[in-house]
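Ligand: pyridoxal-5'-phosphate. Inputs:
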Amino acid sequence: RTVYVNGEYLPEHEAKVSVFDRGFLMADGVYEVTSVLGGKLIDFEGHAKRLARSLSELQIRKPMEDEALLDIHRELVARNDIDEGLIYLQITRGAPNDRDFIFPPKDTEPTVVLFTQSKPGLADSPAARTGLKVISIPDIRWGRRDIKTVQLLYPSMGKMMAKAAGADDAWMVEEGAVTEGTSNNAYIVKGNTIVTRHLGNEILHGITRAAVLRFAREAQMQVEERAFTIEEAQDATEAFITSASTFVMPVVEIDGAQIGAGTPGRVASRLREIYIEESRKAAL
Ligand code: PLP
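Predicted complex:
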């Protein structure tokens, strides 16, 4: 695999970053994951915009313009011959020559790393036909989940807790309400209404979320952006998640309780179809 690091395209085993990199020592960095369908990027503009915001919130210098970022994404897709898959992009505050809590001097170059992950069958996923099982876990993450930082220890532990419980993922709960999934936004459907948590510092503002809600409204579906509980979710007619790597994925069980008929719901399945179809059309 060819990866990108700080201006160079290199075989993955030759790509290196410093042991003093702030991303490595302090999780001082941000990332984006953009999906690829038919060799094209899904919602690149959305990801570029959120990346700029994450960087700005953390006062990390934006290392290049969006056009240059797009070129790197495309170059990696071409060099690695990606038809369906993901592109991971990470920018950290860079590598000063020692460890220090104080931010390094302004002229420290951010570290930029991108690599591809080939995922044949991303669009025609078997999981979309059976649906996922989720468990609930407390949300003990920090208070700025709207910034897409590389601080993913708890989400990673959450997936392990789900796996240990025989489930696929975990929904996180704070003050009695679902915030989001470990790496996705969470939704329930009540009759004809789609309910998903309102935006704020408590959740990541999903790029897929924004697109799916737009498509839902265009298809005359009702959308309510508000908090909901696990009990309300267990009583819902449907549940699902969204993310760049799963698109729209039905959820059929929450903490052992079957949702609806225990099979992917009509709304989630329809939204998945619309999302994939429209995203393909608009892909770059
Ligand atoms: N919420 C969290 C915590 C995430 O990590 C992600 C994606 O990685 C999402 C939501 C979904 O965001 P997007 O649709 O932009 O992939």
